[in-house]
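[step 3/7] inverse_fold.run input=structure_tokens len=302
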């Protein structure tokens, strides 16, 4: 009889409210407002050669949102950077690229609902393996669908990365069921907003276009980096209100977030974009983004 393989012990650790704990033993209060009401914020980012890319920008967004939503992280930026360094070193197989998540909840429910006495946030930090998107998405382009789930541009939480993420997940689920990489969402006024988990860029007549934040989108860290890079590589860029017609008639379309970086889109449902292949401006900006990452992290990339 073949012997059953011994189960390897789970040695992963994470940071929970001041302590490093085994991931399998991590706990928050059953009365935590993040668990019961979705009163929380999070940031997702990645490391290159062990160095987080634009950590300061992610923490800046977290704190700005925290000031609006009264979710106050007591750990300093320097302390969070040290926490990340420790987790990347302590968890197996993360010496190169890792996926990081920083979550801050509003704490115990009763105290968390009192604005005048908002408690320090409960901070959780995890570091796990980076699972990249399929290479073919970057080489030959991805397909996206248009979601029926609208972004509510009048909802203040739309502009913050909150843990109330169900609408995004439902839109993404529908995209995956249609064998698409992402779902594009419009707002209640039929204006282009964002992807379920990404920001959206179009290219038309040599100009880079992306919706303005007020049309209902999260101001992405990668989005901001791409707008910076457009100026560096002399691509005229503009934030302006866009419609489904603009999307369907674009010469190029691409998506951005911290994990996917710059992903070309060659099909919106049945509509082919750019002759069915990634366009030159998309490729230029993708190359410029990779070079930016290499400069800021000291990570040489092929």
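[step 3/7] decode complete -> sequence:
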């Amino acid at each position: 009889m073949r012997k059953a393989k011994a189960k390897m012990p789970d040695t992963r650790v994470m940071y929970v409210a001041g302590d490093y704990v085994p991931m399998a033993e991590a706990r928050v209060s059953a009365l935590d407002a993040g668990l019961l009401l979705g009163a929380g914020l999070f940031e997702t980012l990645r490391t290159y050669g062990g160095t987080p890319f634009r950590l300061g920008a992610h923490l800046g967004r977290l704190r700005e949102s925290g000031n609006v939503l009264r979710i106050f992280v007591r750990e300093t930026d320097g302390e969070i950077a040290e926490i990340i360094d420790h987790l990347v070193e302590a968890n197996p197989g993360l010496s190169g690229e890792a996926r990081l998540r920083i979550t801050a909840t509003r704490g115990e429910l009763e105290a968390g609902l009192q604005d005048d006495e908002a408690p320090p946030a409960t901070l959780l930090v995890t570091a796990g393996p980076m699972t990249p998107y399929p290479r073919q998405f970057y080489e030959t382009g991805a397909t996206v669908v248009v979601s029926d789930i609208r972004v509510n541009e009048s909802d203040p939480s739309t502009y913050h990365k909150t843990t109330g993420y169900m609408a995004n997940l439902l839109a993404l689920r529908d995209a995956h069921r249609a064998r698409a990489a992402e779902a594009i969402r419009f707002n209640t006024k039929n204006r282009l907003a964002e992807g379920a988990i990404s920001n959206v860029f179009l290219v038309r007549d040599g100009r880079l276009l992306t919706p303005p934040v007020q049309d209902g989108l999260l101001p992405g860290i990668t989005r901001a980096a791409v707008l910076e890079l457009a100026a560096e590589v002399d691509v005229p860029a503009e934030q302006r209100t866009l419609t489904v017609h603009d999307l369907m008639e674009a010469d190029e379309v691409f998506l951005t977030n911290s994990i996917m970086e710059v992903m070309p889109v060659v099909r919106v449902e049945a509509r082919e974009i750019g002759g069915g292949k990634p366009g030159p401006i998309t490729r230029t900006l993708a190359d410029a983004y990779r070079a930016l990452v290499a400069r800021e992290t000291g990570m040489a990339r092929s």
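[step 4/7] annotate
The chain has a mean pLDDT of 94.
Residues 143 and 267 are 5 Å apart (CA to CA).
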